[in-house]
Design a protein that fits this description.
Length: 209
Amino acid sequence: MDVEKQGAKQGALTRGDKAGLIAFCIAGAGIAASMIGFCIHRIVELGRGTDVPVLIEFAGDDVQAPLTTGGGTVTVGLDQATITAATLPPIATVPGIIGQVIQILTIIVVIGCLILLAQSTLSGRIFNRRNTALVMTAGITGLVGFAAVRFFENMLANATVNVVTDNAIDNAVITAEPFTFILAAFIISVIGTAFVVGDKLQRETEGLV
């Protein structure tokens, strides 16, 4: 009985902890709402198909830029540029819309899982199978979802360049940052392992009481 009381006392949250978790839930809901609003605006913009700004990435191509005071130009390496297309065909807009829909679903799942995790923590139960599932679901969904968003954004960018320049410019077909995804996968696996071990230790401790 003493061990049980001691464990309950150690697992109790202070008022500051509870206030922080509640603030996290509110902030998470606000961030999700603002990002979803942006995605919906982008879907409408792409669906209209006219005067659509699209961010294009280049492989450091050299271009002439009017940066001198005498009216001359200097050579600069172009990494990114925003192209506003007068009209975009479905081959460009459809991948862009798919990417935004995936982003909305990813945000809902990730933020939803984290809010449920915070609510469970508020009840005083941190390590259990449900919370482990929530952590892994949020991590894997975020990793795969945002990678898919990146893929479809590349399809939109490449199609836009082909339409605007009539295939005169060959920009990078697919751009990706593998180190970022590898690091994210490693962090997710470490956090998931920590929850699995914590759940196992907590169940073993409860079995001794």
